[in-house]
Amino acid sequence: MSGQSAERVSMPCKSHRLGQRFHDAFLFASTSHAEQTRKQTTTPYIAHLMSVSALVLEAGGDEDLAIAALLHDVVEDCGGKPMLEEVRKRFGPRVAYVVAGCTDSDTYPKPPWRQRKEIYLEHLQTADADVRLVSAADKLHNAREIVRDYRAEGEVVWQRFGGKREGTLWYYRALAEEFRRTPGNRLVDELDRVIAELDRLVQRGESAR
């Protein structure tokens, strides 16, 4: 290199600007889930939706996917198929497609827990990268919350879940295996690590009994 000093050139970072559609989606999600909390807690449900949307953005998702992350439970928990049409009307076909792809039931009452989860795992096998990214973000945040609550509460945490202990562990292990099947999803390694940590905690708890 010559004796001349080299100047660092700052390249502009690629960004996905969030506009009015995102703000509208946040308000829509917050209003739709206003009366809901996380399973047997006092945490407003919007906290989960915000976390999933943040994970999607941090993994490179664009505004449509960030919006879909905010709305990924609105069909399942706030109105079924008519709500999906409302999402389509307000936020467009791509957002509606991803929301539908993250929904394991759009009917009331919901089918039995195990049946829903098996069908959803089968659906993921043919889901595109957009759906898999938002779904992985959802499952990652859920898994992190399970680990946190298990550390604090132990085995009682499984009473919150339709699959109880064995069913919930089966489902998250199966999800991790399915997401590993295709490359390119930046959240999969973290999901693997969190589920492995959950397995270690459960095994440690079994050894202590």
How is this structure best described in words?
The protein is mainly alpha-helical. It has one domain: Hypothetical protein af1432 (Orthogonal Bundle). The protein has helices at 20-32, 46-58, 63-70, 74-78, 81-91, 93-101, 113-124, 129-153, 164-180, 188-208. α3 packs across α8 and α9 runs antiparallel to α10 (188-208). The protein starts with 19 loop residues before the first helix and ends with a helix.
Compact summary:
Helices cover 64% and strands 0% of the residues. By secondary structure, the protein is mostly helical. Residues 1-14 have low confidence and may be disordered.
Describe the secondary structure blueprint for this structure.
Elements: H1 20-32, H2 46-58, H3 63-70, H4 74-78, H5 81-91, H6 93-101, H7 113-124, H8 129-153, H9 164-180, H10 188-208
Helix pairs in contact: 1-3, 2-3, 2-8, 3-6, 3-8, 5-6, 6-8, 7-9, 8-10, 9-10
